[in-house]
């Protein structure tokens, strides 16, 4: 005991820390700090304790979060004023008496958010110093949610009241909403929502560790705000509300979240309620967030970026799969970097907690980068095609004729996505952010982006990974004796244009795989833009392959492409089995003719044979053709021998 400090009490300095960490609105019950920024605690030593000496007294801190703290998962971290091999650190100072020690603790700007315990370890003698909640930090330049402007941080992290735009595009109304992220108990409920997500339930270690990443947290929340698939916060309902609260009656998120914590999923929510509750949770956890309303929002059920509406000849809708919301749809944008996509896609990310379509089998949507949506980069994670369609799908109305055939009777490129609105920073005004989602309707860029999105989406639907794809396409009629063309198809499923050399050749091959002579060659340098396909043909001429092939009638075609810049190499190979030509047999009464003799390419020969049938009745006349190149080609015909 003589060697250890005897801690009488630890003062977590909540008031001072909260003021520095913009967490004072949480009250002073518990310590809440933001990551990547130092907070201080004061250790009061007992009168009998050994004196603290800066640089000499040896002590170590342990911080732990989640049910299974592990160093490997960064959910358990050890550091000391003397040494730290993590991004956590501590420094200590003492007053003249040596009886109070002020320790400044710096958390990693990449640490998982959540509730931590803090323990002092003096050569194995452990003293619990208390617990603190660690949040994302929009004030810390090293944090993925860093936001430069103090005005914006005040609006998107600290503002507890907001306006949610509803109505129709002709009458847009901002309705007040009480987000209440700092109300007592709400932060703990927000953390409890994360602890109810199925990923935590199935692998708590991995889930808690992943809470360092705002992308992960955003996706988890977009699933957990709705009660589909899990014990999420709100049950969606659009028709019958008698056994719950009508979505239009809610005034704020606090009531909903408290009701959820007490008795599970809350009846009922609609899009703006889902979005508003999501915004509360994001702001509570420290991720800047705004509620966004889109007027004329589309719901594209089959992700083809076209809203297809089918009518019968009387003008009645016959399928309600795709739809355009007559009024509005509401979701949230949250602010973060996208190291998974590249810095161009940093900034606002849309996620939509209203249960509409499943993504990876779960009702959740996003986060999708606003930049990716605006530029039509719908191949980028997560659910970008769906959100792109919400703001900028084309519309096609089709009528089904009595023949069953569908005919397009009207098309529009401008009906979807208008007056995309959020509350202005620091003012109770509508801020139109349509330009952050799309180029103006009617502009050249808007069409270019739509085309790009269609292109990317096509690749996505083929479920191919990014890369170059090489395929060989054979001809329909590859008959020995004829000349025909085969094709090499090169598809570029990368984000950039590729310049490739493509070599395409054919060799004779025998059935046991022995390669023979070259019988066709072609090559070209191809520039393949992203998402497009180029083809190279190879003509296989009879005069050229005839001397090379064996009686197995096999030709092997090979295509090789090399992208010299990236050293991307692809090869495709196919073996052609040449078809035998049809031998025509014509029977005239009892005489017959067949083709025989020396036959050149594309030539016909004729021979006649006379014989007397010995049996009357139905019979089969069989012909066997044999030559030096074509062996044993058989054909037959039915004959009836009359008496
Ligand atoms: Ca859910
Ligand atoms: Ca569609
Ligand atoms: Ca459009």
UniProtKB/TrEMBL annotation:
Family, as annotated: Belongs to the transglutaminase superfamily. Transglutaminase family.
Keyword Chloroplast recorded: no
Keywords: Acyltransferase, Calcium, Cell membrane, Chromosome, Cytoplasm, Extracellular matrix, GTP-binding, Hydrolase, Membrane, Metal-binding, Mitochondrion, Nucleotide-binding, Nucleus, Protease, Secreted, Transferase
GO molecular function terms noted in the UniProt entry: GTP binding; metal ion binding; peptidase activity; protein-glutamine gamma-glutamyltransferase activity; protein-glutamine glutaminase activity
A single GO BP: proteolysis
One Pfam family here: Transglut_core
GO cellular component: chromosome; cytosol; mitochondrion; nucleus; plasma membrane
EC number from the UniProt entry: 2.3.2.13, 3.5.1.44
Catalytic site: 271, 329, 352
The protein, known as: Protein-glutamine gamma-glutamyltransferase 2
